[in-house]
Amino acid sequence: MKSKFLRALKVILSSSDNRLDIRNVRYLPRWAVLGIDTILLLCSILLTVVVLGDLNIYHLNFMPAYQQILLVLMVNVIVMLIFKTYAGLIRHSSYMDALKLILSSISAFGILTIINLITIAITSEKIFLNAALVVYSFFSFVLLFTFRLSIKQLFEYFRVFQTNERCEKAVVVGIDENAISIAAALDLEHPQRFKIQGFLSRRASNKRLMILGKPVVKVEGGIGMEVQKLGADAVILSGDGLTANQKYALVEDCLEHNIKVYNSPLVLDWSAETSVAKQVRNLQIEDLLEREPIVLHNREKSKQLFGKTVLVTGGAGSIGSEIVRQLIKYKPALVLILDQAETPLHELYLELKAKHKDFNFKCIICDVANRNRLMMLFKRYKIDVVYHAAAYKHVPLMEDNSPEAIITNIYGTKNLADLAVLNKVSRFVMVSTDKAVNPSNVMGASKRAAEMYVQSRNFYKRNPKNATKFITTRFGNVLGSNGSVVPLFKSQIEKGGPVTITHPDIIRYFMTIPEACQLVLEAGAMGKGGEIYIFDMGEPVKIMDLATKMIKLAGYVPNEDITIEITGLRPGEKLYEELLGDTSKALPTHHSKILISKDLEQDFDTVSEKINRIIEAALRYDATRVVSELKDLVPEYISKNSEFEMLDDSGIQKDKNQDFSPFKTEIISEDS
């Protein structure tokens, strides 16, 4: 009978005609709150009289009872006005409001006691019994606080009841100030997204400890079971209190127990425009693959970049734009941001203008294959440092458009390198890729050819006045870069799947965009010229495991909610990438994470001649000739899963003296 009544009541309250939507009820005016508080004070006086009456203790007759009541109310109202206990929104009452009530009650008790003492000094009689003041102060605080707490809980109940909102039960990892602040903020926020069940910490004692009224549990092994014991189904990582290894182990344990994992930034980094709950977001795969940042040679970088003119090619791309952002703190005189992609360059322009008003930069639309435009640029500006990040990078696309890969990746690099020498640029830092090692595709081979040209250019002795130091950086896949696997998987998961993987055994090295760009800047500071710097990227990641984790972190079950499909290797794709070639050796530097690839030095004249033949074939869009010439320059280039495999099998002989020309193509020499 009772359950039927409750269901009927819920239907009536939920009806669109009858429902009182608590969300549309505005706050009470301050005078109304003060009036309600005054009524509660009268109730406190009445309770005091009743309690003391049962003990046969009655009020004194120094003045009439109504005058005593008026005096008590007047003192309390004055104190309330001073502490502004009526000013807050009752439904958002906090511990600060409780503190105000305590101070108000203590102050009223103190004033009434002083009035008593003054009366005794003058008339040898007192107005109030001391016991009455103590009991009254207790009742007044309890009633005022209970009123606010009841309204707060009632409002929360109706809000949840009417909107059918469900709070996720979560525990916060950590017991530092940041973790406590996050828990407090989430508890107070409306609407409430998380219901905090407690805290987990490895530093907690074995004794029972409570913070914000929530239990603190010491974690000694995995946390999955502890989270479930607290009745939670999610954990919130607070700020940066965990190392990368600790975070990875924690997430692994949570995913095994089907526990959601959220990440919250440091409280100091919270955005004022965004609600607290929205800043607690799903843990991203990037958060698990981050490593300790490498910070070296800041003084050297400042000396080389402060007050200098810096050119960043590919400046609107993932790597180039982050290089630009990291350059800001070194205060260069001018940064030239060059890219042929108009829209991303404009977006970067708007970002820099909004966030860094004192940063002097120019955005330049230009293709690195446009030598005449580059020449004008070098003549107009006295460029000191070049960071060359412009390149085509997508393996299948470049396999189908091999001449374009050559024109941008090789010819563009040659243009910049030659002009850097002619204009006495002090440092030229090239961004390369692990796909240049034992390449199996046109893209990787084109980057290896560019590496060879840059490196041999550095050791070219024909021009003794050449002071340009050519430095190359080589690293693996960059998390979050345009077109990389992580954004692709995210997009596929958001659409409900499937997540597509080319091969179940494919593995890749990963690093974050800031890490990659930090390496580029470090190389510019460390390099003496001619080096190829490689980065210790840790253990390779199996792409199947990466996809599975991303699906779980998004709150889904792999192959149930989101399916994983195997599509087959793409043209030119390898199962694994390498950072060192078969004939290369890794030499240590003064930092354990940064190594130098010691490759055989190439004769510049020989490399330059072969590079020119490759470029000439590309300018004629002769894809077969392009790849054939490229394989001659880069003998370790063996095509995989590609139409160009026939060039490896057939052993086609190239006629070095063959005239390509149905028309004349001019390739400007390196010294022109």
Describe the overall structure.
- The chain has 672 residues and is α/β, with parallel strands linked by helices.
- It folds into 3 domains: 12-162, no CATH class; 168-283, NAD(P)-binding Rossmann-like Domain (Rossmann fold); 298-650, NAD(P)-binding Rossmann-like Domain (Rossmann fold).
- It has 23 helices and 22 strands.
- Strands 10-9-8-11-12-13-18-22-21 form a 9-stranded mixed β-sheet, sandwiched between helices.
- α13 (342-355) links the parallel β9 (334-339) and β10.
- α2 (30-54) crosses α3 and α12 crosses α19.
- The chain is elongated.
Overall mean pLDDT: 79
Number of domains: 3
Main sheet record? 9 strands, mixed
CATH 4th-level superfamily of the largest domain: NAD(P)-binding Rossmann-like Domain
Q: Please write the CATH class name of the largest domain.
A: Alpha Beta
> Main sheet: which strands, in order across?
10-9-8-11-12-13-18-22-21
Known CATH architecture of the largest domain: 3-Layer(aba) Sandwich
User: Share of helix among residues?
Assistant: 40-55%
In whole angstroms, how far apart are the ends? Answer: 98 Å
Report the radius of gyration as a whole number of Å: 36 Å
Contiguous low-pLDDT stretches (5 residues minimum) are 12-25, 651-672
- The 3D shape can be described as elongated
Please report the number of helical segments.
23
Proportion of residues in β-strands: 5-15%
Total number of beta strands: 22
Helix/strand structural class? alpha/beta
Query: How is the CATH topology of the largest domain named?
Result: Rossmann fold
